[in-house]
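INTERNAL TRANSFER SHEET
From: sequence group
To: structure group
Subject: ABC transporter substrate-binding protein

Please process the attached sequence and return the structure record in the designated field. Keep the field labels unchanged so the import script can parse them.
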Amino acid sequence: MYLCEPERLLSQESSEVCGSQVLDVLFTGLVAYDPETSEVVEGGMASSIESDDNVDWTIEIEEGWEFHNGEEVTADNYVDAWNWMADPENEMGNASFLATAGFEGYQEVADGEADEMAGVEVVDDYTIEVSLVEPFGPFELLIGYTGFHPLPDEFYDMEATEFEEAPIGNGPYMMDGEWERGQRIMLERFDDYGGEPANAQAVEMRIYDDVGTAYLDFEAGELDIHDGVPPESRTQALEEYGDRAFDNEVSSYDYLGFPTFVEPFDDPDLRKAISLAIDRESIIDVIFEGARTPATSALPPILPAHRDGACDYCEHDPERAQELYEGTDGIDGTLELYFNSGAGHEEWMESVSLQLEDTLGIDDIEFNSLEFAEYLELHDAQEVEGPYRLGWVTVYPSPQYSMELYLEDSPSNYAGYDDPEFNDLMAEANATEPEEADEIYQEAEDILLEDLPIAPLWYGLDTVVHSERVDNVIANTRTFIEVADVEVVE
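Return from structure group:
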């Protein structure tokens, strides 16, 4: 099956799709999600997650689960992993989710004043108690996220970088050899898995740096599953492969981000002008062959809080774009557009550049593209100096996750956005019962879309194809293939 090159294979650090697809089958967290709605369903390790006040939570985990090395999975494996993630010396990006949920004692650990979080306690081998500093309604949804996976005792006897060469998880598949960068990741079924056993005996995740090359391999019979059919091949794939090809509506969207920490992108009017100059519908029709939906909100349509038309600056309005642009200092010199290479972004980025030239008169434009892992390193170092393409996947059905990356302390806040009112509203919504929080999240979204540190472009629609050798190929809203469900029929 197709796989893009992961940046990391460590749950406590990984937040990108490529690595998360692998970790999704190597590990089973406390909560499982429905592939169509991302809502909580049976299949996770937690038998119950309960709270009377959304502050103090009791987590009961199933007995009898094992890691791939034979160790039993107990409450300690979760709690130790969370404390290790919280330790600032380990520099784990997903530690920010401990802060998001408000784990009591996290800040003291992050500040170097404590070794462990005071609000996390192992009651017995199968019971965990978590105390938060304030109510956090989406806790059960959050706790199934990749960053909260357990770690075996063996992990602490090696360097993290050594561990991720062949991660030891508790999921339906285990590593068969080490991660072969640029080539493949081989998996074999874990026959002592504590949940529903996987169907296929073995899986080869073949790493590609270009979705088009992967599709050529699929057509040549060298690949069984490709969940990233390039847009220019979508119509042909759907027509030629019949019920072995399908579109998958996902909880993702692409956006054009702006490095607000450098001039001239610290000017909201410049950001708005660029967004208004982009003809999203034209790009979708011509480049994507209709396989996208124009984004008019920072929340994907799968969420009840989604509102069509929430973004006033996401429509194509050349006159308004020109008017706003003329009131700014404009672009002095070369405008650099950044995107990750090999994922089908080159053609639509070219269209964006032509639209910016036609509408705003920006004619000195250069492209800066890197492979995904290097691209994220560039963002981490804040070395991006122009508008950039990124996407976001809502891995559980809460606006909290969709807008988490715009908080000042989020590791994925590559725009450098920091608005106190937005931060406060997000905190208020997070402390509210999920069924009552949507209106507050929408208030926060209004602030975000007025400042426009990112310009939503389009919602995701992945085209998946599979060979006659396999059946029961299910793609979930998080853009992952449900690997354990795939059946080999030949």
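Handover comment: The mean pLDDT is 95. Residues 137 and 432 are 6 Å apart (CA to CA).
Transfer complete.
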